[in-house]
Amino acid sequence: MKTSFIAASVQMVSGTDVDRNIARARELVAEAASRGATLVALPEYFCLMGRADTDKIARRETFGAGPIQEALAAMAREHGVWLSAGTVPLVCPDETKVYNTSLFFDPEGRVAARYDKIHLFGFSGMGERYCESDSILPGGAPVKAETPFASIAFGICYDLRFPEMFRSLAPFDVLILPAAFTAVTGEAHWETLIRARAIENQCYVVASAQGGEHENGRKTHGQSMIVDPWGRVVAELKKGEGVVTASIDVNVIQSVRTRLPALAHRVL
C-alpha cells in the first residue's frame, strides 16, 4: 500500500442544465488529475441543482445505466483516477422519489462502492425551508470501501451531523463527504463539524461542496476542504468553482493513532 497519495476536492456551483454541469465536472476532474490526484471527489448534486426538488426525479437513472453514470465512468477511465461522484439521482422503490446516491468509480470506470444517503436534511427558518424527505428515499446502511491505497468511508452532507454513523465504520483512513450545505447552516457549523469528524475518527476528511449562488436562487456555503487526522485544514476553497488538493499521508494517520490511541480506547 502506498504511504501517500494526492486527493482532490472539487467545488462547483451547479445549475439546472445537467449536460452543462457534467461538462464542467469533466473539466474540473481533468484539472485535478493534471495536478497529480489519485482520488477525486465531486460535490453533492454536482449534476443538477434544479428549480424544484422534483426536477431530480425526472433525471433519475437505474443503477448501472444512464448518461450521468456513463459520463462519470468515462471520467474515471480517461484520467485513471478513483472518482467519488458526488451524488446521482437513482431509481428507488417509490416512484415519486429517488435515492440520493454517491457512486465510487475505480480507474477502470467500474463502480467500487455505492452509498445511498441515510440522513435527510430538514430545515426551516430565516426565510428558508428544506425537506429532502419530500423527494428522496433514505438509504439503509453506512458504507466503506477498501482500495489499494486507503480504507474509505462515505457520507453525504447532512450525514455529517450524525457522528455515530461514521464511528460504526471506524477505523478508516479517509472520509469522503460531498455536500450542498446552505449558506446559513454552513456559516454556523460546516468547518466545526468537518474538523470534529476528522479528529474523532483520526482520519482525513475530503469534503467537496457546492459553493455559491445558483440559478434556482439557492445559496450554498462552499468552503470545500481537506482536513488531516489532527483536525488541521490542509487545503481549502471558500467560494466559487475550483479544485484543491492535498497529500494524504498514511504515516500521519498512524502517528496520530499511536500518540493518541483514542480509537483503541473505545468502550462503547
TrEMBL record:
Name by which UniProt lists this protein: Carbon-nitrogen hydrolase
SUPFAM superfamilies: Carbon-nitrogen hydrolase
Family assignment from sequence similarity: Belongs to the carbon-nitrogen hydrolase superfamily. NIT1/NIT2 family.
Keywords per UniProt: Hydrolase
Domain CN hydrolase positions: 5-250
Lineage of producing organism: Bacteria, Pseudomonadati, Pseudomonadota, Betaproteobacteria, Neisseriales
Keyword flag Hydrolase: yes
GO molecular function annotations of the record: hydrolase activity, acting on carbon-nitrogen (but not peptide) bonds, in linear amides
Naturally occurring in which organism (per UniProt): Paludibacterium paludis
